[in-house]
Amino acid sequence: MKFTEGFWRVKKGIKLYHPAHVYDYEITKDSITVYAPAQFITSRGQTLQGPVFTLRFSSPFDNVIRVQIWHYKGQKDKKPYFEFYKEEGYCPLIEDFSDNIVITSGKLKATINKKGEWGVTYYYEDKYLTKNSYKYLGYAIMPDNTAYMREQLSLSVGECVYGLGERFTSFVKNGQTVDIWNEDGGTISEKAYKNIPFYITNRGYGVFVNDPGRVSFEVASENVERVQFSVEGEYLEYFIIGGSNMKNVLENYTKLTGRPQLPPAWSFGLWLTTSFITNYDEKTVTSFIDGMIERDIPLHVFHFDCFWMKDMHWVDFEWDKEVFPEPFKMLNGLKEKGIKICVWINPYVSQLSKLFDEGKEKGYFLKKPDGDIWQTDDWQPGMAIVDFTNPEACKWYSKKLKELIKMGVDCFKTDFGERIPTDVVYFDGSDPEKMHNYYTYLYNKTVYETLEEALGKGNAVVFARSATAGNQKFPVHWGGDCLASYESMAETLRGGLSLSLCGFGFWSHDIAGFESTATPDLYKRWVAFGLLSSHSRLHGNSAYKVPWLYDEEAVDVLRFFTKLKCRLMPYIFSAAVQATERGIPVLRPMVLEFPDDLACLYLDRQYMLGDSLLVAPVFSEDGYVEYYVPEGIWTNILTGEKIEGGKWRKEKHGYFSLPLLARPNTIIPMGSVDTKPDYDYADNVVFNIYHIDNGKTVKSQVRNIEGKAEVEIEVRRYGDVIYVTKIKDTKKPWSLYFDSLKIEALSGASVEVDRKGSRVNVYADTTVLKVI
């Protein structure tokens, strides 16, 4: 939202006020409150007119500073509020100097000018981050007398802005106008399913606007030297989040708003669905699953989309008897084949559903201001929307889900949650404008906690489309309705990269596109990308996604990458645990791992899977891919090719290949099982050691499916000698693989040599291994 017309002029009809200077202030043990009038006060007479800004600076914990700004404080509090963490008893350091007041939170500090013009400057370890100067902060009165609070924070030369949710526009947000407002718009526009009022920059800080409603961002657009954000009303709140690097900023942001729970290991396997409007019944489903088994393609989850329920009855949580006459027997049969079950749900209730009258009678739906139930024919006939601010409605909805869980359902696809009206009344009096975005938090929280209650902690997973800040606590999220095209495949990745920089650790997408039918070529390329994501699902709208409907090679390609992912699970699951413990996502933009490499600032067609694997999907029919490799000697783990970094590369790849590079000075643990994602990762694990530089020490850890560390090794290189030390060991057999290393001597192990390198089988009683 723009308020000005360039540097000098304010838009016609808008009155815009700015704090001029610090007139007075109060300091307590944990905060600073500043009073800043909109004019320079030089005489008593000038104190008779406002407006006056009230600003409070505080800190919830180290390296985070909270800024609260009021014009009028007499407004009603409007629920809902984002949940955020505050360390009990925490107090920042507050110092009152002659020229300024300084609030220090860990290594982050804000300096507030006491003399001269209004100004606040932020530093991390004395490194300048950003500032708010005179005429940055503003209070605007619009021509219709609507009030807005507006803030601006400076951008430095070369500073790039990222995040703001799952956005399909350019990865770097500079030059964009972004409104935080969830919409069901697919992946082709500026609309987004997952809008997060948080951005992070390559300068090493983040900004979280603490408002669940519509926040309008002007990112180097209205003013190319600043990021601007504005909200309607008399109050604005945001957090400045510091860190030693971008990863550390994400750690602090997710400490504030919540970190993802660890999804069950089985959820990392291959998901197959019925697709949406295809014709399917029990025979179809069984043929798909049996077809995968017959072709030796490991399948781990089967998803029933909307039409598992009778059409026009969504949701009633009852199987359509004409299509699935014996659902309990069917699910038991699928489970005997080792398949987990997912079913589609949404928070809307059709007037034809038997749940409608029940919900109406008990007051479980959103209402109009006149007390009638809010209804629409858009999606389902006369549908109502469950009011998750009503605790009894949550219990009612949860009870229906638990009946499905007892039947054998393992997880739910929590679709929709974006089409939430604002002309409604909520049970708890929440503001409908703020609830538009926040609704999805309550919806997914209810479903996720239902699964936890029924199946136990660590066994819950949803497949969610909509999100707001905090929804990262309830994984997994997928990218919505993409098209079957290379362009849509690329925009899907952009969305995932942007979302990952908002603390979302686990992300998926519809392999081969949702809308229309993919070509065999696109199907096979997207399979490689999809199986090298944290979660992998074949799903479509009007087309089935079983590979044999594309061509026989698609069968082989899907088998190859599914089995590769299963073997990579010790590595991937370790990255997953890192997401839950630190808030660092599994899918990582290059800039997150290489913030000091200028070539990585804009890269959005490649990514890091965890901290050690570079993935560059192929986005062209001719098989060519152009990608950038940072400094060092990298290794393609599929071919063994050594690649010198610090440059761009152009390569041509077949369908069983793509750039999948191990970072130098890393260890990639690979498992011994290629048929499922949930197994004993430590048993016969192979630690693949890639190009250890002289003087380097590298560690690697293998977790079990509960996330606990089982095996940990340390590798050190001194000249031509490599020492391998077992730090933690379960006495299960394990080995090392040295790519392209000729071993002349070793002690404590035996060696097997192949055309790519040497496998070292470590003896059970060996604690330190010397390799020459």
From TrEMBL:
- Which is an annotated Pfam family here? Glyco_hydro_31_2nd
Q: What is the primary gene name for this protein?
A: yicI
Q: Which GO terms describe its biological process?
A: carbohydrate metabolic process
**Which molecular function term from Gene Ontology is one that the record holds?**
carbohydrate binding
Per the UniProt record, the source organism is Caldicellulosiruptor owensensis
Q: Which domain of life is it from?
A: Bacteria
Domain Glycosyl hydrolase family 31 C-terminal stretches: 583-668
Family annotation (CDD domains)? GH31_N (cd14752), GH31_xylosidase_YicI (cd06593)
Which residues belong to any copy of the Glycoside hydrolase family 31 N-terminal domain?
55-218
The catalytic activity, as recorded, is: Hydrolysis of terminal, non-reducing alpha-D-xylose residues with release of alpha-D-xylose
Q: Which UniProt keywords apply?
A: Glycosidase, Hydrolase
| Start and end residues of each Glycoside hydrolase family 31 TIM barrel domain | 260-574
Protein name stated in the entry: alpha-D-xyloside xylohydrolase
